[in-house]
Amino acid sequence: MNLKSWAEADRPRERLLSHGSQALSDAELLAIIIGSGNRDETAVDLSKRILASVSNNLNELGKLDQHALMRTKGIGEAKALSIMAALELGRRRKETESISRDQITQSRDAFDVFGILLADLSHEEFWVLLLNRSNKIIEKKRISQGGIAGTVTDVRLILKCAIDRLATGIILCHNHPSGNLKPSEQDFAITKKIREAASLLDIKLLDHIIVSDRSYYSFADEGVL
């Protein structure tokens, strides 16, 4: 049975028009994105299978590339790219919202900036947030990109970025793709090294946060900075 043979009130597009997007399930919204099903199942049924493959977790769905999505029977390249584009727009919307709140007052503000950049990555990246005296964001800058287990961090490059943009405060951030937020010995060591080097230039290291796809660890909040 295809969507056209359904009662009009049960079709995702019609339900979106009459009831709004919040009334639709994840599968119905995904069905609108992919546009059609196949001979054996509706777009909604196909969407349910896609979601079931990631335990109905949209965060996990956002981590899949086109090749992973195309492993689901009925998903070709066009449908896979449509899903990826929709999820990327959602991430960018969150990024735009976080930029509008451009003053950092707590660790959660920093997580809001970096979480959407790093949460879905399968490799580690190290970033620095440059702040002025009012703790307003000057710029966020990626310092390095590594593999699953780690990434190299150049202290001189971090300080050069801060000096070039006349930053008086910095917040460090990197991700742990494993989901384990516990800092490693290397994390503690590089944090101490950067804090000491920055202080010689009257630049204050305000925090170092480690992010996963769900949460974060703040050195400042834990009193270990």
Principal-axes geometry comes out as elongated
What is the element string, with H for helices and E for strands?
Answer: HHHHHHHEEHEHEE
Beta strand count: 5
- Report Rg: 22 Å
Structural class, judged by helices and strands? alpha+beta
Helix content bin: 40-55%
Number of helices: 9
Low-confidence stretches: none
Portion in beta strands: 15-25%
Task: Describe this structure as you would to a colleague.
Strands 2-1-3-4-5 form a five-stranded mixed beta sheet, with helices on both faces. The chain has helices spanning 12-19, 26-34, 43-52, 58-61, 66-69, 77-100, 107-118, 155-164, 185-199, and strands spanning 125-131, 137-145, 169-175, 204-211, 216-218. The longest helix has 24 residues, at 77-100. 43% of the residues lie in helices and 15% in strands. It has nine helices and five strands; from the N terminus they run H-H-H-H-H-H-H-E-E-H-E-H-E-E. The protein is an alpha+beta fold. Helix 2 (26-34) crosses helix 3 (43-52) and helix 6 (77-100) packs antiparallel against helix 7. Strand 4 (204-211) and strand 5 form a beta hairpin.
